[in-house]
């Protein structure tokens, strides 16, 4: 099982994920993505879904028309883990 990040490890990891916001209460990171329209937003969600299945690590997310909100944390660890950091990096990379 993957472990929750220590505060030091979390701060180091978040320094490399400048577009993501850390929520202390949820022990999670989040980011909102805006697209041209629903079709672009849903195409992005499809790509994230494929990443999530491959990694066995799934986002909490929502979509309203052209906007996708993603929250990442690790249920098995009860907080933020390296898996979330890796997933955030992969999601960012989708946007090139
Ligand atoms: C067995 C399976 O891989 C686990 O239940 C995975 C599935 N997806 C998951 N996703 C997230 N976000 N956290 C988890 O702890 C988690 N666990």
UniProtKB/TrEMBL annotation:
Record bears the keyword Disulfide bond: no
First and last residue of the signal peptide: none
Record-level GO BP terms: tetrahydrobiopterin biosynthetic process
Coiled-coil intervals, chain numbering: none
GO molecular function, one term: 4-alpha-hydroxytetrahydrobiopterin dehydratase activity
E.C. number(s) listed in UniProt: 4.2.1.96
Keyword annotations of the record: Lyase
Catalytic activity: (4aS,6R)-4a-hydroxy-L-erythro-5,6,7,8-tetrahydrobiopterin = (6R)-L-erythro-6,7-dihydrobiopterin + H2O
NCBIfam families from the UniProt entry: PRK00823.1-2, PRK00823.1-3
PANTHER family in the record: PTERIN-4-ALPHA-CARBINOLAMINE DEHYDRATASE
Annotated family: Belongs to the pterin-4-alpha-carbinolamine dehydratase family.
Matches recorded under HAMAP family: Pterin_4_alpha
Name this protein carries in UniProt: Putative pterin-4-alpha-carbinolamine dehydratase
Taxonomic placement: Bacteria, Pseudomonadati, Pseudomonadota, Alphaproteobacteria, Hyphomicrobiales
């Amino acid at each position: 099982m993957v472990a929750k990040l220590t505060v030091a490890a979390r701060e180091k990891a978040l320094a490399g994920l400048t577009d993501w916001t850390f929520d202390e209460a949820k022990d999670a990171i989040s980011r909102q993505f805006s697209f041209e329209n629903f079709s672009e937003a849903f195409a992005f969600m499809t790509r994230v879904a494929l990443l999530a299945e491959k990694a066995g690590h799934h986002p909490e997310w929502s979509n309203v028309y052209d906007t996708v909100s993603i929250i990442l944390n690790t249920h098995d660890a009860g907080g933020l883990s390296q898996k979330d950091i890796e997933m955030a990096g992969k999601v960012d990379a989708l946007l090139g």
